[in-house]
């Protein structure tokens, strides 16, 4: 028997909704599609619940078809949630909204960069990675510039998401030429955290497909004598060596 989700919402009955969410797979996808037009009302109800309720709220808000402001307000709180999975889902949802409503969502993510909660700042980086689209080459520079102020953020939550993940794998895959150009530009910084991100940005499969140019840039970074930067260069070389062993070994 089909669940009347509208009636469930009005009655405050979360059990049938959470049961469909727990089933995962097609049941979960159908649930999100059915509830999307009421995502804000459901989200306001679910964010007050237990862990699985908050996870569902985050996933559901990414499917909200209306103006993004109310969804982003709820997602900002979920991006700082104690539960790691909820934070990840909230960041992905913000990326989905960014991909659909770029001009409206982009300024809000710019504000989030200065949020005191590291989870919210981390969500900016992850949302950029999730929202990037290869058919929208005009988004490449704005997205990379959105990330630029986060390059100096030493908070572990932000640092580990930005360089090794968003730059090295997501943006470099979607916008390879633009990302490499920005990495070259950022490599002129004197800030060790920025240089750390440049090195980590050269540690993934996209850099291995441009291994000669990546090695030239890593060689330049290796001239820096600070251990923090040299450690990042060494880590990037190890990862590149596992992906493209012959060119890397010839440089060592």
Largest sheet: none
Strand content: under 5%
SSE class: mainly alpha
How many strand elements? Answer: 0
Total domain units? 2
Concise description?
It contains 17 helices and no strands. The chain has 252 residues and is mainly α. The protein starts with a helix and ends with a helix.
Explained architecture:
- The protein is mostly helical and 252 residues long.
- It has 2 domains: 1-131, Alpha Horseshoe (Leucine-rich Repeat Variant); 136-252, Serine Threonine Protein Phosphatase 5, Tetratricopeptide repeat.
- The chain is built from 17 helices and no strands.
- The chain has helices at 5-11, 15-23, 25-35, 39-46, 51-61, 69-78, 84-100, 102-112, 118-131, 140-147, 156-174, 176-186, 192-201, 205-208, 211-221, 227-243, 245-251.
- Helix 4 (39-46) runs antiparallel to helix 5, helix 9 (118-131) runs parallel beside helix 11 and helix 16 packs across helix 17.
SSE inventory with pairings:
Elements: H1 5-11, H2 15-23, H3 25-35, H4 39-46, H5 51-61, H6 69-78, H7 84-100, H8 102-112, H9 118-131, H10 140-147, H11 156-174, H12 176-186, H13 192-201, H14 205-208, H15 211-221, H16 227-243, H17 245-251
Helix pairs in contact: 2-3, 4-5, 5-6, 5-7, 6-7, 7-8, 7-9, 9-11, 11-12, 11-13, 13-16, 15-16, 16-17
